[in-house]
Amino acid sequence: MVTYNMARNMDLPTLIKTCKASGFEGVELRTTHKHGVEPTLSADARREVRKRFDNAGVVLWGLGTTCEFHSPDPAEVRKQIKICADFCQLAQDTGARGVKVRPNRLPKGIPVEKTLEQIGKSLVECGKIAADQGVEIWVEVHGSGTSHPPHMRTMMDHCGHPKVGVCWNSNPGDVKDGSVREYFALLRRNLLSCHITELHNERYPYRELFTLMRTTGYDRFTLAEIPESSDPVRVLKYYRALWLALSS
Questions:
Q1: Which class would CATH give 12-247?
Q2: Which run of H or of E encompasses 247?
C-alpha cells in the first residue's frame, strides 16, 4: 500500500495494524502524512520504526518523497538532492528498501531534452548517495509531460546508475491502443517498484500488466494507491481479493 491517500491519516501503529488485518504485506510511506516517518526523527525513533515493522512482519518497502529535479534553478536542484540524501539515510536507518522520487513537469521555455538530461544527471548523484546507504532510488512515472514513457526512458538513459530505476505508476498515458505492452517493454529493464490504482477501472488493462510482470520476472511489490475509506480494512480486503484474481 501507498499511504497516499488510503492511510494518510493513520498513525504508524494503526497503519501497521491495518496492513496486518487486511493481508497487505508492505507499505510505502508518503512524506508529510500522519505516520510521522520523516528525516527529523531521532536515532532512537528510527530504531523504533524499524522494530515496529520487523515485529509485525510488515515490509517497510519505501519512503515516498516529493523530491524533483526539473527546476531551471540550480540551487533548487541542489536542495532537492540534499533532501533526497536525507531520505536515503532515513531509509537505511528504518530498514526501507528504497526512496521514491519524481519528475513533476517540463518547465516552459526550456528545451525538453535539456530538462530530461538534467533530471537524469541529478538522478546519478542520488543513485550514488543511495548506493552508499544500501538503498535504491525509484523514479515515479509522474508529472505533466514527464510521465510520458519515452521521456522516462530518456531520463533513465541519461542516468544509467544501477541503483536508480522506475516506479511504474499505472497512468492513463501508459495505454496505447488498449494495451500497456509497448510502454511496459520500454521501461521494464529499469522497473524497481510499482503503484497501482483502481483495479475495477476497465480502461486500464491490469490483467495484462500483471501478466507482463509475471512473465518477465518482476517479483516486487505492486502498491495500492487508492482513496481513503471510513472502513479501510474491509475495502483493502476486497482490493486484495481483486488483485489476487487479476494477477493469477
A1: alpha beta
A2: helix 232-247
- Sheet of 136-140: strand order equals 26-30, 59-64, 98-101, 136-140, 164-168, 191-196, 223-224
* CA angle, residues 103, 228, 173, in degrees to nearest 5: 35
- 53 burial via Cβ count (<10 Å: 0-12, 13-18, 19+): buried
10 Å CB burial of residue 107 (0-12, 13-18, 19+) is middle
Grid-cell match 494495451, residue found: 179
Cβ neighbours around 35 below 10 Å, total: 22
pLDDT tens string 25-63:
999 999 999 999 999 999 999 999 999 999 999 999 999
Contact of 247 with 52, CB cutoff 8 Å: no
**pLDDT of the residue at 106:** 98
User: For position 214, what pLDDT does the model report?
Assistant: 98
> Read out DSSP for 75-101?
HHHHHHHHHHHHHHHHHHHHT-SEEEE
Model confidence, pTM: 0.97
Contact indicator for 138, 192 with CB cutoff of 8 Å? yes
Domain positions in the chain: 12-247
